[in-house]
Amino acid sequence: MQRERSQQNAGIRVTVGNQPLKAGVLFLVAVPIGDWDDLTLRAIQILRDADLIASEDPATTRRLLSHHSIDTRLTSYGPANLEEKVAVLIDRLQQGARIALVSDCGSPVIADPGSLLVASAHTHGIRVASVPGPSALTAAVAAIGLSCDSFMFLGQLPETRSRIRRCLSNRLIGDTTAVAFCTATSLAYALDLIAEIAPRCGVMLACDLTKPNERIVRGTAFQVRQALENLPTVQDITLILTRKTRRAAQTGQDKSAQRTQSLSSRRISTR
User: Fold this and answer.
1) 176 or 85, which is more confident?
2) CA 55/CA 108 separation, integer angstroms
3) Which residues contact 241 (CB under 8 A, 6 or more apart)?
4) Helix (H, G, I), strand (E, B) or coil at 14
5) Share of the chain above pLDDT 70, in %
6) Rg of the Cα trace of the chain?
7) Does CATH place domain 136-250 in 3.30.950.10?
């Protein structure tokens, strides 16, 4: 059945943007960050129609596919033997296959090893199509309750104290909001460093978003550390650092509300 579907797909035409193309496309498919039902309808269809799904974590992806009754062939795409895997996948794409690249959660290529495959596809003239969806990065920034017109993404925090110090030291003295993914270990080191260098820095944690036990924790490094002691163990953590204090944040929210009210009054008066 799988072989028959692949043979059928090899001759059909798909649409990327407004241009019809023959099969031979690398799809970058965003998958849920927690709740499996957050997978978009378009993503489900593309994953079903693909000839192959390349996954950073096949075990996790297999459970997601099973939940949505998707039986497309799955292959590993992880840190080990990455260049060899890229060569194999590029060869398949050049033969006309449609391949979906997925991460273990969220958007592929963001803090995972997908960039080498995407860059190689562009080099070989292979079309790359993005299938947007859930993102822990944007979900966390939206949930913290601050006006955040711009921010700096630091990727995945390293796991050692010395490397975390090098990564965060300059960020803690600037005014730009910084966002990073971290584990429980790197978070503990980061909170120690923040308490030492910038004790008044605003710290926000978005923990296990879209899962039943999701939490938003806000405060200084000391306050956040205390709050975590009374919470169940968290797995997926997004750390957000801002120079704004809670008072400043509230002032910004009040000003935003005043602007909204003023604009509403103007609209009413001109009708």
Assistant:
1) 85
2) 9
3) 168, 171, 172, 177, 178, 179, 180, 194, 201, 202, 203, 204
4) strand
5) 81
6) 22
7) yes
On the question of pLDDT at 145 being above 90, the answer is: no
What global pTM score does this model have? 0.77
CB 156 within 8 A of CB 180: yes
Q: Where are the domains of the chain?
A: 2-131, 136-250
Q: Rounded to whole angstroms, how far apart are CA atoms 118 and 115?
A: 5
Query: Pairing relation of β-strands 13-16 and 177-182?
Result: unpaired
Number of C-alpha atoms within 13 angstroms, CB side, residue 85? 20
The set of residues, in sequence order, having a beta carbon less than 8 Å from that of 65 and lying 6+ positions away, is 47, 53, 71, 72, 74
Choices 1.10.3720.10, 1.20.20.10, 3.40.1010.10, 3.40.190.10: CATH for 2-131: 3.40.1010.10
**Which residue from 216, 159, 223, 157 is spatially nearest to 185, judged by alpha carbons?**
159
